[in-house]
Amino acid sequence: AESFVERYRSQLDHDVTATLEAVSDAIIPWGLTGLEPFSLVHGDYRLDNLLFPAAGDGVVAVDWQTAAIGPPLRDVAYLLGTSLEPADRRTHEEAIVAGYHAGLVAAGVTGYSAERCWDDYRLGLLQGPLISIIGCIYATGVRSEASDAMFLSIVRRSCAAIAELGSLDLIPADIS
User: Fold this and answer.
1) Counting runs of H as helices and runs of E as strands, what totals does the chain give?
2) What is the pLDDT of residues 139-160, one digit of tens each?
3) b/e for 29-44, b at 16 or more Cβ within 10 A?
4) Pairwise CA distance, residues 165 & 82, whole Å
5) Tens-digit pLDDT profile for residues 108-144
6) Interatomic CA distance for residues 39 and 161, integer angstroms
């Protein structure tokens, strides 16, 4: 986070840098929080890693280099928190997460409340700055205006969601 802020300091407002610092401080306890239920997680589930076949049948995810076992709402949070403008995210996220939960229930998942699903979504939002900063700072490709703009928009959007939804409040202070 420190390297990212240093690189883009002139393009980041105080709220974003403060959120990045708080996320950086919380990343280890976050990684130990809310680990169940778990599933295969893409880790970088954003629009430019999704292909939509011309026939309109489903979606294909590519770029699986950050795949892991983890809380499934991390991918949902990453997609919404990084791909949508904050106003659009605010308008639609509750219905999307509720629809995701309804899909889990319809598939036979039991013992996983809608409230827990919502909190897991809020926790999952920290995936946005984590993966984006790592990708930005350690990318081997040539840095460009387009890549800078992409990383900045992803980090701004995810930091806005983290701050607005109180994601950091869900991380227990006594985990280390």
Assistant:
1) 7, 4
2) 888 889 999 999 999 999 999 9
3) ebeebbeebeeebbbb
4) 14
5) 999 999 999 999 999 999 999 999 999 999 988 888 9
6) 23
